């Protein structure tokens, strides 16, 4: 039940951030560890195939923590926290920028040795540059070093766009490759996706994944913000437009990519070989049963978080940066269409499907492939209350009546209360909830920013209590009390800081919360054999007994 007198979470959060600063910092530089062992307080390490362990400092996996330090200075009026964020950023931008490509030594496949400062990365991924829904804290980086930041934002595009005419992209960018000045002005956007050719999509050598593409759009939008380069703005919108054009013509549901991989080698007999040069992986695995809809672009039964949360959050922010209402409208159309088809409101579940609306619940794979082994059965998943955050942010930009109705229905379905579908004013609100979600907490805060009903903050307190009860253990934020390793990019502490900022009337003065955090991906010696894994699989999801 709600309490009449509120207990602030700020002392706990201040203690947490100070603990991270005390134990995660390198003994030789301002660099920070990506995470800490909650038992030994030692930094997390990447385990190479030869058995060597390297303490990890991946600046791309620390952006939420930097946002937290800046927010702390805002809330305390103590500049010391922001100074530490500035010091770390300045050190990184001085020592870890590739002078030729402008790329930073960070991301999904590259990190820095915390103590000796060498550039590291899993050999299986060749230490290439990759950002996938990282959405770095560019405003801080630009404040610290405008030249390096602006050069990165253009170098990012130069390294990942392999064919500007066809908009062929690679999620992997190469270091040590130069690029010309005025990059965005050198090319004119050409039509790429032709909706009249649907279901056929362009064939590209690269994989036009929405996660990698959205980070490019986010980068170009910030470059426009800092420089006023209208060609960068043009390219940001052009890239996103391809995803819109590739949507299903009837359902308008979003796509995971706007092209199909070009087949460049004969398809092998072994279905477990799923490299993209063998062609579209969805067509290969599901085409005989499902026909033309079976394309990678149309799959909405794998992980839909990128298309329904990460991408809309970023695009809505980009639309604000670019002052482009049409871009925001496109994003909102995709959100509404997705939930119109994929959300089973009665059971509050997400339905696995193709983006033509075809329900794939209980479908069992008849062959091995990219999406899973033969015999894999698709199931419905519980809806995530985090979905409310993109809905609230969308409504803050555009008062679409269908969007309002959807937001009200979902708010009610999660037993949070009832909202007036015309005004979003509270008709009734729950005094208790078992929900536990950082993004739900942010959604309640931002809904409060819109209607100023403090009952929303009281409900946010309930969610915050749940987050602390379930995730704050041994002085760190962990998946559970049984887990051992804490990552400093976890969005929970920042969401809790955001609640304190809302109570202080300073929410709009702190950095925008927009990312779940970074990752590292590559080969790891696991159980005596080499596996390609993510750090959260083999580090942060490990329980104490393991």
Automatic annotation (TrEMBL):
This is Pectate lyase. GO terms for molecular function: carbon-oxygen lyase activity, acting on polysaccharides. It comes from bacterium 19NY04SH03. SUPFAM superfamilies: Six-hairpin glycosidases. Pfam families: Pectate_lyase_2. Keywords: Lyase. One of its GO terms (cellular component) is periplasmic space. Signal peptide: none annotated. GO terms for biological process: pectin catabolic process.
